[in-house]
Amino acid sequence: MAETKTVHSPALTYFSMISLLTLCPPFVILLWYTMVHADGSVLQTWDYLKQHGLQGFIDIWPRPTAIAWKIIVCYAAFEAALQLFLPGKTVEGPISPTGNRPVYKANGLQAYAVTLITYLSIWWFGIFDPAIVYDHLGEIYSALIFGSFFFCIFLYIKGHVAPSSTDSGSCGNIIIDFYWGMELYPRIGKNFDIKVFTNCRFGMMSWAVLAVTYCIKQYEENGKVADSMLVNTILMLVYVTKFFWWEAGYWNTMDIAHDRAGFYICWGCLVWVPSIYTSPGMYLVNHPVNLGIQLSIYILVAGILCIYINYDCDRQRQEFRRTNGKCLVWGKAPSKIVASYTTTTGETKSSILLTSGWWGLSRHFHYVPEILAAFFWTVPALFNHFLPYFYVLFLTILLFDRAKRDDDRCRSNVREILETILRKGSIQDCPRNLLRDPDSMTNRDTPT
To answer: What is the pTM of this model?
Structure first.
């Protein structure tokens, strides 16, 4: 059994888990209702709920319909088929706490291109109207909420009775096991990786698909697409394109190599990403803004620059690790720390940690352009309502919490290395290459 070691206090940990399990599903519905039916106004939704109470909330919760289930099943089956059958380079992930090394097929960029080309083609040739997705969005979210919850129950049971590898096990607490997950690398059969599907091929792919959907819906409603919607959609697509270009690198990050497949990761990617992450575009469908060419270009350039810097941070670290530090960072030999650490099996290993380039400016610097990019694809909505900026607020809180989790884990597992880093660093938090490198943590298989 894994020990139930947590970064936060037990009381805060349980409160956070229970709150997210119970509050996130209704929040998704309230956000959709406010964006689509309440003019984006939180006050309008609040007045409605104050007037009608619980029954009013029950009335606005859409019931999953046959068409919603058909859309979800067709999309999921299409993405699963692409994941399985498209060709791709074989890529190995990091060695797990029990010595396993997952093997992936890197075909995400191909799947992304095929998905968008297919989606636009079936619209262009009149086979399927993407506006139907928007028209049934509430029902789709409702179906995803319930369907994904049962999927997480399936993962919980699978982790108990048929784990895919030795990187699994119970901590003895059903709530923590369900929330954080039982397995690190659950698979169906030998080749279908569940977390790659939920995180990448369903969650992140749906972000791009819905961004395009909102554009098409606005075009069909108004006969044109506002420049604000174009800026929002282009920046989101650039970000998602960057993600799939770098997908193999994502498989080395905390989401895949540390966090187990439970409600936190899988429900979040299946429900939270399609609803919350795409919400600025959802708002713009019925609230087009005329930015003008000059302002549109300024926002586009700033947003693309932030996305590029975020990508270049990860590229620097990947290249540094791939060459074992024998590369140039900003035209110079990189500075580094040689870190020794002990695995859960008691084996002593070492890793080199980059402390120059972007990683020398500050610890977790890459979070700054990521938050700014989210701001720039939201700011075309201007400031009439707060709700379009919820994703920016959520992302900021998420990254600060992640930084704390990483920092505390780093302190508990590699204290001497952290002290060296703190002497070299310039602002806060550990460098991402240490904190998010699962090879450099000793308790990465325990819930945090």
So the answer is: 0.87
- In angstroms, the Cα distances linking 160 to 146, 176, 180 are 22, 14, 14
**What's the pLDDT at 444?**
32
Whether residue 13 contacts residue 6, with contact meaning beta carbons closer than 8 Å, is answered with: yes
* Pick from 170, 153, 298, 275: nearest CA to 227: 298
Instruction: Give the model's pLDDT for residue 401.
Output: 80
Ranges of the chain whose pLDDT falls below 50: 1-4, 426-448
In terms of Cα–Cα distance, which of 16, 33, 15, 25 is closest to 270?
25
Residue 137 has which token pair?
């969005």
Residue 327 burial (C-beta neighbours within 10 Å; 0-12, 13-18, 19+):
middle
Distance CA 357, CA 367 (A): 15
Question: What's the pLDDT score for residue 418?
Answer: 53
Sign of dihedral through CA atoms 86, 91, 94, 100?
positive
Q: Residue 301's CB: how many other CB atoms inside 10 A? A: 11
3-state secondary structure at position 183: strand
C-alpha 379/C-alpha 284 separation (Å) is 11
